[in-house]
Amino acid sequence: MKALLPAFFAVVSTLSAAIVEKPLEYKAGDVLCEGWQAYDDAMPSKRPGVLIIHQWTGVSDHEKEAARKLASLGYNVLVADIYGKGIRPQPPAAGKEAGKYKGDRPLLRSRVNAALDVLSHDARTDASKIAATGYCFGGTTVVELARSGAKVKGVVSFHGGLDSPTPADGKNIQAKVLALHGADDPYVPAKDVAAFEAEMQTNNVNYQLIQYPGAVHSFTDVGAGTDNSKGAAYNAAADQQSFAEAKKLLAATLK
Question: What is the C-alpha end-to-end distance of the chain, expressed in Å?
Fold first, then answer.
């Protein structure tokens, strides 16, 4: 019986572990923001951090689910709130809100760096090992985070905008950049994809662009439906493959 006790308590300890998920308020300058944090409370020590940036409607269940998955892999995760607490616009208002930041890249960079600072100073985070991922609007944002010179190890853009408004800023990028793109995405023109690659190559950025045939915008979002003719639709194969690629980059850069 005594020999079985260590195994019994190990099982109990495993069962008691849980992914903690909760809102997290913080300030970006004078603006109150409300992000979402997820982590495994069974891990006693610091662990790598992952910042997630939301799509155009603000912090949603889509990003919270991504945070849960990454927390279960051992990361301390913060879903950043770029817009501010309570600002969760739906289309068409979401387009106007996202456009405000896409048209003011310094403002976008300041908001995302404020969230990065919060994650970096969290007691659970190993501040030397942080990466960022983002969806749609958030995909655009993580590339801007890298362009700001932020000390992150990697950034992953899921079906994000790939325009290059200030190509010279590519010289500031210290992170590995992974762009996961729907090959048939009508919202990201071929000229933007070409400009993105030119910026990465000109500035010797360690980057990879993966395009998924048959996938359009929002291919990771089940809520987008499955009608490609609308320009945004879920694609199960692209979703699974892109997440696998993101996991590989995070494991490689945050090990």
Answer: 39
Specify the 3-state DSSP secondary structure of 213: coil
List all residues 6 or more positions away from 123 whose beta carbon is below 8 Å from its beta carbon: 46
Q: Cis link prior to 48 (omega < 30° from 0)?
A: no
Q: What is the pTM of this model?
A: 0.92
Choice among 18-22, 42-46, 157-161, 195-199 with the minimum mean pLDDT: 42-46
Task: Determine if residue 182 is left, alpha or beta; phi over 0 gives left, psi from -120 to 50 gives alpha, anything else beta.
Answer: beta
Using CA atoms, how far apart are residues 164 and 141, in angstroms rounded to an integer? 12
pLDDT at 2: 42
Judging by DSSP bridges, how do beta strands 31-40 and 76-80 pair with one another? antiparallel
- What residue has token string 């983002």? 134
Burial class (CB in 10 A: 0-12, 13-18, 19+), 4: exposed
Q: φ and ψ at 56, to 5 degrees?
A: -70, -15
3-state SS assignment for residue 72: helix
In 3D space, the residue among 159, 157, 209, 220 whose CA is nearest the CA of residue 184 turns out to be: 159
Q: Which amino acid is at 144?
A: E
User: For tokens 């998924």, what's the residue?
Assistant: 212
Residue 18, CA atoms < 13 Å, CB-side half-sphere: 4
Parallel, antiparallel or unpaired: strands 19-28 and 31-40: antiparallel
Q: Which residues contact 104 (CB under 8 A, 6 or more apart)?
A: none
Pairing relationship of beta strands 47-53 and 125-135 according to DSSP bridges: parallel
Residue 15 has pLDDT above 80, yes or no: no
Helix (DSSP H) and strand (DSSP E) numbers for the chain: 7, 8
Query: What angle, 0 to 180 degrees and rounded to 10, lies between the N-to-C axes of helices 105-121 and 137-147?
Result: 80
* Predicted pLDDT of residue 44: 85
